[in-house]
Amino acid sequence: MNMMELKPGLEIPSVSKHVTLERVRLFYGESEKNIHTDEAAAREVGLPCPIAPALMPTAFLSEMLAGFFGKSWIVGGAIALTFTGMVLVGDIITARGVVEESEADDSGIRVSLKAGVRTKRAAEWW
Length: 126
Prior knowledge:
Elements: E1 11-18, H1 21-28, H2 39-44, H3 55-69, H4 71-76, E2 92-105, E3 108-119
Antiparallel strand pairs: 1-2, 2-3
């Protein structure tokens, strides 16, 4: 991949996942009953259902980036995140990224993206 291919506005292929209780339990572990793994524990604190741990949508975002950038993402990628809402069990979430800038540097090509993960309940991407 070269800089000419990484022009601002290029959308990288998105990744969508259905967040099921089984998937959350595999991701988080089932040994402890909490707001992520147990419906009663979630309702006890006022949630409508269990919520995905924050690392789960982060992993889906990283999967999207690894799928596009390959080894370059695994070896030299960096990410800064802000969490703005909950992911509920039952949600379908989509990770999406758009190139904002790319430039050559000492290690190759540095690419800045606007990227995020959202549910269908979210009104807008950014």
